[in-house]
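A further point concerns the way the authors explain their paired sequence and structure data. Each protein is reduced to its one-letter sequence and a matching series of backbone shape codes. An entry of this sort, consisting of the sequence and the corresponding backbone structure tokens, reads as follows:
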Amino acid sequence: MSTTGQLDNLTTMISKVLIANRGEIALRVILACKEMGLKTVAVHSEADRDSLHVRYADEDVCIGPPPSRQSYLSISSIIAAAEITGADAIHPGYGFLAENAHFAEISNECGLKFIGPTPEAIRLMGDKAKARETAKMAGVPILPGSDGPVKTFGEAADIAREIGYPVILKAAAGGGGRGMRICGAEADLQGALETARSEAERAFGSADVYVEKYLERPRHIEIQVFGDTAGRIVSLGERECTIQRRHQKLIEESPSPAISHELRQQMGSAAVRLCQMVHYVNAGTIEFLFQDGQFYFMEMNTRIQVEHPVTEEVTGIDLVKEQIRVADGLPLTVPNGDFHLRGHAMEFRINAEDPVTFAPHPGRIREFHCPGGPGVRVDTAAYRDYVIPPHYDSMIAKLIVKGKTREETMARGRRALELFIIEGVKTSIPLHRAILDDPRFIRGDLSTRFMEEFEW
């Protein structure tokens, strides 16, 4: 019997999981729990009463009005929901409180197993400047830049002169492109620094900003990592996340057309070393910039990623089930030895937005039909007559396609996007179809400036 088969027969101590999230990721966790024989609790705002994650959970609790701060970001309301329903574990999904160390601490203090990393790891790796310092200590390549946040304009200017322009200013507690400014000359540095600090203070409650060398045409490559409570940490290959707009990912794929098997091993080993430094447990992602054959640490995401299905398709590993097992103290089911990815997979984020202007387009879905056929998977919580609320992220669905080769995967992507019917709201489907026909994308000739130069 395989190692995976033996562990599938082990029963977990966890019996009821509260999902502190909404939409497709909440539904994704519920489906994993059903396969494992675990009860589930859905929490929801008043705007999400009719959501599928509420319908399919064993129990549901309304935790507040539509605004996130009064519902999905309310730690006290979520903990109260867990207590009144008798949940013994919390899965945070991604976004909202997923990378909130205080939430993880409170969950643990209340006797709830937090299905994610330790609060200490979340806190350390959530500070981008400290994470960069930790990566350097682990021998992971980093871009030239400041040792921690810069205190004055003079300090920032000295570092920028030393490493050479262009530079990028990044919020130490940042993410999603907020608190980030690119600067091409010293004349622009002071204004960029003030703007980055102000934006970082508003978004994250900390004005700390550090300076880093700016790569003008990099690829964005991330490594999926996983650690268990016995100290075993593995790399599960890379995801190419280069197709972005305003630092928001649009398409992800695995493997990357730019990464060789040898380079995959090097990046995986670097990611594992970093995780070992912080005694990392559960799912996480190490993000790298890659240019001219060299990779550099960018940041770590201490949670499951939106694009985790891409890795699931090329590894055959259910990452959400693995998260739950590891949170219960069970060892990883991933076999030992050299790890090979099987086939090729892509994920297209289907958003309720204008495909040209990217303006959000909430509203009622009048018609909804998901594509099927070989190699097609759709993760969604949408349905016909579902009303997309204006209060949250605009993502409707994730279309994941898999083939034996990148070419077959792209062909399946074209076919699936053509058959994906969503009426009543504007979506990003036409944009994805156009990207798939772009000669640069077909060749795999990508950089993070792809969308700036994209014409259709």
Summary: The chain has three domains: 3-115, 144-213, 219-453. Residues 1-10 have pLDDT under 50 and may be disordered.
